[in-house]
Amino acid sequence: MWKKQNPSRRIKASVVKRLLNPRIPVAKKLDLPSINKIHVSTYSKNPYIQERSNLPQSAITKVIKVQALSRRFLVRLRFLKYVKGFHAALIIQSAWRGYSIRKLLGFYKRKKCPDCNRILNMLLPDLRSLRLELHDISQKHEELAVIVSRYEQAFRYLFDQVSKLQKGNKE
């Protein structure tokens, strides 16, 4: 009884496949913005609308059908984007849930051996300082690489200028 009143919110794979492959391939090729500029009411039998738009009734009905097709296609695209985003959110949530449960259970705690903890506590400050030194060295290396590339550009420019002067003297 409860399931009939509250259906599951899980999106079936068959629904996604159906949405990815629309039955009307023409809907993909439609020029949607230009079609949506034509504002026509759904009451196409109204003579006032025919007079106002200067279109025959058959044209108005065709425009309405095309607008419905394009809107349906746009809604399908929006729904697909939502499904993809929802799927990504579910993955992130499950990963975080697994991480938090493992953390609660103590998977990420230090070793239970007191000697191991003592050695680890002795080594941690050195490891942190080493990491900072490595970071500084990598930054200096990047700066040096930039300077070297500038020198190379300057050398190429000078080399080109010298070759132009030599060609000018030969002629």
Automatic annotation (TrEMBL):
Protein name: Uncharacterized protein
Any Pfam family matching the protein: IQ
Organism: Stentor coeruleus
SUPFAM superfamilies with a match to the protein in the record: P-loop containing nucleoside triphosphate hydrolases (SSF52540)
